[in-house]
């Protein structure tokens, strides 16, 4: 096999990331040397991987997860352009793992040609090293206001001659209209590369869909390559669905007599909230994303996660009264945890001339440390120990501890202190620390004690890495069992089939089959 495929979507969160991972896992299990690729990602959920120069670099967490599905080490080339929104109007630009500046909607146009050139060259480089490169699009190719200069959806497919499949989420409703409309809004040259569709998250009897599947094929001239059922164990590294009010994961029943309730504050510029997924993997631990002060009052453990805009998100906490809710929670002796930007918010003061330009602002004052922002971002994988257990993690931050001598939460392998503990309040700059099983167990045991949950017993055998590996295998199984893998293989190996018809907007539709679409 030698080739590639673009997985596009009708919308954000349609299932592009997980379908790409599933195809990667299926190919890997068949012995294919496969790599993931997303030319440009917009996300504050990133992972630190080894860069082209041997130093740490950032890519989207979804591409790191897809690399794991391929059975390979993550590489900055798998996501050459990463945009990290710092406000509604600006984003930090990470190019091949390294921050190179900040863009707005206006000056992005000036940088786009450089970014596109890097993305196309990187893709061709990967193509020479791997049997197949499975590409994930961004948003939808039908965002026609963005088609000029696009290099992540049909712009990439056109440049590389890639066949594309379009995935739609039936759970949202209107999936057939979304599939037809996505195709119809594309120009003829782009349509010539769209080879078929996949429907995601179907619940119920697939036979009910057959009239709709037949009709969408009749009106577009393109097959539906399969219908993926909704599966509760597909939870990997969510990016677009971290809405407040969401409960992470599907925790099993507690081993003891009580649950541990965890409230994660859903900051406006939340970053790497996937840290909380490791907590949600534990039986008896309910992890809930919230923006409501009342939810914090009911929680046993409150978590302030990472942020791409520490100072402005801290101001948002104060505007919503969440700062007082956090202080009351801590004053009650219940556990409070800050991770990266959340750790910085718990400090006495923050000096930020880099990210926000606000200068010195007061933190929440719950940890005896001072923070100052450095121009150069810390990007590194870290190793050490905490609570008597080995810990590995990664760091992505401008803020540094510059004052205070607190009790550390962790220590690096060389003995340097990291993070802080003051009674029931803890903080760390390390992401991924709670993916370390023994450290997570000891932290949750201590948190349950501080919260007064004497009946909570941490499970002795939860293995986060094994759970993630099983979830990737679930994705591979879904692809093998529910998609036309022979058709996918042909597309990857042979490219777009010839003779695909053009479907103009408003094209007449075929008559409905008896019984309607069933959707």
List keywords for this structure.
single chain; 519 residues; alpha/beta; Rossmann fold; 2 domains; seven-stranded mixed β-sheet; six-stranded parallel β-sheet; 15 helices; 28% strand; disordered C terminus
Overview of the structural elements:
This protein has 15 helices and 27 strands. With 519 residues, the protein is α/β, with parallel strands linked by helices. The chain has 2 domains: 258 residues, 3-Layer(aba) Sandwich (Rossmann fold); 204 residues, Class I glutamine amidotransferase (GATase) domain (Rossmann fold). A 7-stranded mixed beta sheet has the order 13-16-14-17-19-27-26. Strands 2-9-1-10-11-12 form a 6-stranded parallel beta sheet, sandwiched between helices. It starts with a strand and ends in a 25-residue tail after the last helix. The C terminus is likely disordered.
Strand content: 25-35%
**Largest beta-sheet details:** 7 strands, mixed
In angstroms, what separates the terminal alpha carbons? 36 Å
Q: What is the CA-based Rg, rounded?
A: 24 Å
* CATH first level of the largest domain: Alpha Beta
**What is the overall number of helices?**
15
Domain count, please report it: 2
How do you describe this structure in short?
This protein is an alpha/beta fold and 519 residues long. It contains 15 helices and 27 strands. The protein has a 7-stranded mixed β-sheet with strand order 13-16-14-17-19-27-26.
